[in-house]
Amino acid sequence: MPNRLDPKRLKSAKLALFVIFFTQGFAAITTLPRIPELIDQIGVNFAQWGAIIGFAGLGSLLPLVFTNKLVNRFGTSPVIKVSAIAITLVLMSLAWITDPVLFFIAYTVQSFSFSTFNIALNAQAVMFQKKLGKVLLGSFHGSWSIGAASSAAVSGILATFLPLWLHLVIVPILVFIAFQLSGNYLLSPSEDGHEAEKPKAGDKKVSWLATPGYLWFLALGLWAGMWPELVMMEWSAVFSRDVLQLEAGRGALPYTLFVAAMIVGRFSVVHITKRIHFSTMSQWGGLIGSVMMGIGVFWSSAIVTNGDASTLADRVDAALTVQVVFFALAGLGIASMVPSFYSAAGDIRGLTTAQALSRMSLANALMMMLAKVIMGALAEGPGLEAAFVFPIASFLAAGIIAGVVVKKSKKLQAENASAYPPTGPISTLDA
After folding, report:
1. Distance set, CA 348 to CA 202, 345, 401, 428 (Å)
2. pTM beyond cutoff 0.85
């Protein structure tokens, strides 16, 4: 599609998207070093915490159905701005909630807000790509990861010097300002082309029962590859405090280096895939990365637990070093997981790209909810070390699944291109 906007206008919209993706990553991770405090604040055990964050994921499902309708009617930028308000208000409220039920409600609303925001933001990014005539979605997601890594580091410092309530006042206010100011430079409803994305009378829909089985196999791979990343986000700080005996500031370092390595990996994907298949990267990333993650968990734990009190401080420092190094290697391994499985979905016959991705996303969300509950139960029962076997095993499984996907994708890509349906518009996501 040729450019229809002034180059300066496109440049300002591009910068705004980078800032908003960065800010979203920063907002999503800012509570990471505070998770142990939040657990103590609402007075729940690990199993109950897992149930809260797991079932709160129900809030992320509804936007999969209706957000596209909002975008079709109002455009992307108004939906982004309104959902950003909800994100910052709920984030700020977490510091004062002491009742588990109220916390669950707030977390559900937060999941709802983030999901709505994310769908509208990615729709704007895709529409911007069409205006620019250049693929930038990978770079935008890289900006999100940079925001997440920055947040882990900065929030770790804030957790060292500031009380929880002040942390969750300062950061949401800054996030809100960044969202709203940058939002003014996004493509407006009259510029983003959302009218052209509305479903047409003749658009084909495929029932869920007719969904190819291979899509559900890819959804399983997507979950298996995404789950270790999510566990690192939600449980690494708890592991640092309860097993490695680290304070909040240093406890955020393993996740910071994990995300930093993942950023390097994701920005390298474009160059590496010129030589090897996308799914081959995920295959070896899963096989090697799972081992690295396992070493990071169990070796660091063994260092801390084996010894007397007189050498504890030195052992804690050594354990932190081990975990930072091996979690960083795991971050490199997991970098290609999510984009590779989404990419493979584009090879499936009988579904538009939009239909395939929406169904994968919904299946992944449901599996994530169950996995969070199981993770909490394992952490409370056998313990945190045993609980980490779960994401390590899924990491390995993702690599094995990716190995199957390599062969299948090569076969599908070699078949006649005319057999494939056209890519469907974003608005036809028929969850």
Report:
1. 21, 6, 16, 17
2. no
